[in-house]
Design goal:
single chain, 208 residues, alpha/beta, Dihydrofolate Reductase, subunit A, eight-stranded mixed β-sheet, two-stranded antiparallel ribbon, 6 helices, globular
């Protein structure tokens, strides 16, 4: 079986579709019980490169006190290379494998694929950055962990319109209080629909 590397948007969101509140805070998220089987470790083990926007990077810097404790970055991400999209000067985490970039996401995506060496590319967020990848057909999969919270307003998951023809549900699971939904995007969506149809067909004998 040939395994093809994917560009994935893995994120958590409120039930009403926000990844951060109006103050760009995630305090609401950490109040939710994720259970004992957090899937992030298994997910990140298949990641060879990742990218995030400036606002997300600044939140990580502050939340994990990275300038004072850079080891926290290495504990989370090791030496996996990270690209930060920004139009302003931001501090670099000491000794971290981080590249500050701006401009066309397609050009950077090519470099990320090379660096990933056959592993997946993770788009951390925010949604506007992921939207730029989606605009150019560079987003293959969305993995969304829905928390039992409503925020009313904030940063949306993905500020783009994607039709049901561009998305195919390929996975559903519960971990703690989170509902995880996995969607194939774009060119992979048709494959995802076939995969779902095959799974349904496999269950049919149980109903006869």
């Amino acid at each position: 079986m040939i395994v093809v590397a994917k560009t994935q948007y893995y994120t958590a969101a409120s039930v009403d579709g926000f990844i951060a509140d109006q103050d760009n805070s995630l305090d609401w998220l950490f109040e939710v019980d994720e259970g004992t089987d957090n899937p992030f470790g298994a997910f990140f083990s298949e990641v060879g490169a990742f990218a995030m926007g400036a606002t997300t990077y600044e939140w990580v810097l502050k939340n994990d006190n990275l300038m004072e404790e850079p080891g926290n970055w290495h504990d989370m991400y090791g030496d996996v290379p990270c690209w930060v999209f920004t139009h302003r000067d931001l501090p670099l985490v000491p000794a971290a494998n981080i590249f500050m970039v701006s401009g066309d996401v397609a050009r950077v995506h090519e470099a990320m694929l090379v660096a990933a060496r056959g592993k997946n590319v993770w788009l951390v967020g925010g949604g506007d950055l992921v939207g730029e990848f989606a605009d150019q057909g560079l987003l293959d999969e969305i993995i969304l962990g829905l928390a039992p919270v409503t925020l009313g307003a904030g940063a949306p998951v993905l500020p783009r319109r994607l039709s049901s023809q561009q998305l195919a549900l390929t996975g559903v699971s519960q971990m703690g209080q989170f509902a995880y939904l996995t969607y194939a995007v774009g060119a992979l969506a048709e494959f995802g629909r076939h995969k779902t149809a095959d799974a349904i067909a496999a269950l049919e004998p149980a109903y006869h």
